[in-house]
Design goal:
Elements (H helix, E strand, L loop, with lengths): L1 E7 L6 H11 L3 E7 L6 H7 L3 E4 L5 H13 L7 E4 L11 H10 L3 E7 L4 H5 L4 H16 L12 E4 H4 L11 H11 L3 E6 L16 H12 L3
Parallel strand pairs: 1-2, 1-4, 2-3, 5-7
Antiparallel strand pairs: 4-6, 5-6
Helix pairs in contact: 6-9, 8-9
Length: 226
């Protein structure tokens, strides 16, 4: 069984197309939308697309993913893999079969990430300050850790449930991806990457420049234990 987890906050434009595309890419997909208090029609649209909706009392991507993990741990059946993506339609689903195949074929791999930064020139000249910021944080990964991922902050990842079943994240926000990477590597799991073509989001961007601060703090703190 494969489960898709989508954290959301006011994603009424992107959530429907995201669910539809991912359902086409992976058959028999269980879809969980974890909503952090949307004031638009995100929840209603998700339910129209037959997704299961969990409401979280506290905003933040990290809190949403933590709630999803708790929910899965208490479920009747463990998934084999968990797909994490955003609800803004930025991450395409076409590479999911390849990402799943990597996990099927190599039991040492704990997660496969969608790599947005495979073309350095494209990132630099895209005009997207957030992609450029990701390149800076990637450099810090290489300075402080043995992790050599091209896109460590990618929000698209297919993760082996066995690898994260016992993970209790502390992250509240966008530092959740960094905490997950460090958790996996510290426990001996490999992380693979597959190139993807990142799209312009549908709706308002939630990530702010200041969100880089907890990401860097998390990286620095946990890198000492690798």
């Amino acid at each position: 069984m494969i489960t898709l987890v989508i954290p959301t906050l006011n994603e009424e434009r992107g959530i429907g197309p995201t669910i539809e595309e991912y359902r086409r890419a992976v058959s028999d997909l269980k879809i969980i939308v974890v909503d952090g208090g949307s004031t638009d029609s995100t929840v209603e649209i998700a339910r129209e697309y037959e997704a299961e909706v969990l409401s979280v009392g506290e905003r933040g991507k990290g809190r949403a993913i933590s709630e999803a993990l708790n929910y899965l741990r208490n479920g009747e059946e463990d998934p084999d893999y968990v797909i994490f993506t955003d609800g803004d339609y930025t991450y395409p689903a076409d590479k999911l079969p390849e990402m799943i195949r990597i996990l099927d074929e190599d039991e040492r791999v704990g997660a496969v990430l969608g790599n947005r930064l495979h073309s350095l020139l494209k990132c630099v000249f895209s005009g997207d300050i957030y992609l450029v910021g990701n390149l800076i944080i990637r450099s810090l990964y290489r300075l402080w850790t043995p992790i050599r991922l091209q896109d460590p902050l990618s929000g698209l990842r297919v993760v082996r449930w066995e690898a994260i079943r016992d993970w209790r994240p502390n992250a509240r926000g966008f530092e959740i991806e960094t905490e997950m990477n460090l958790y996996l590597v510290s426990r001996g799991w490999r992380i693979a990457e597959v190139p993807i073509e990142y799209r312009k989001r549908l709706g308002e961007k939630k990530l702010k420049i200041r969100d880089a601060i907890p990401i860097i703090k998390t990286l620095r703190k946990h890198s000492k234990h690798l």
